[in-house]
Amino acid sequence: MSRVKFNVNTEYAYLQNFKILQNTFTKHQIERPIPVESLVKCKMQDNLEFLQWSKRYWDQYFPGGDYDALARRKASGAPANSASAPRAAAAVAPAAPRAVASNTAAPRTRTPQGGASTAALTQENASLKETVQGLERERDFYFSKLRDIELLIQQAMDQDPELEKEEGSLLKQIQTILYSTEEGFEIPAEAEGDGAEEETF
């Protein structure tokens, strides 16, 4: 931490800090390459991905306890970045010194917070999942019935081509109902193609 430069705003200083981070990763045998070039460009997506990975790594390997970032920065001789920093540092109790965590520490387990509200939400979530599964089963059931009817009509029309020519026949009316759409319904773009790919059931 003593070599890290806080409050930097030049690309050269960014590179120096990332080199320190990369060396630390190598020292602790963390096999994660740091995309320095993309991080230095300060693009949100690249930085967000790296921060998400950092957070996941922290959650997995940090052994627990208090971590006072401001005290660690002061110990490294970093300048305070604003007038609010001394007040924030005074509000935080100083952390007891402890050994630096290595990547071989036991994973930290999270305890759910919230008690009754979490249990209620979990129960509601389970109930909604059951409802969705029931609706999907029902949808599949009725779809298979409609598909069977469609196949029977196609077989009947293949056997007797005259049925297709009759406009008022029962089979023609059923086929019209099967292929009708509701107002506002749009056929998906991939279904509007030339019909080269037939869907199989």
TrEMBL record:
Region (Disordered): 100-125
Cytoplasm as UniProt keyword: yes
Location within or outside the cell: Cytoplasm, Cytoskeleton
PROSITE patterns, per the entry: EB1_C
Residue ranges the record marks as coiled coil: none
Chief localization: cytoplasm
Transmembrane regions listed in the UniProt entry: none
Protein name: EB1 C-terminal domain-containing protein
Organism: Cryomyces minteri
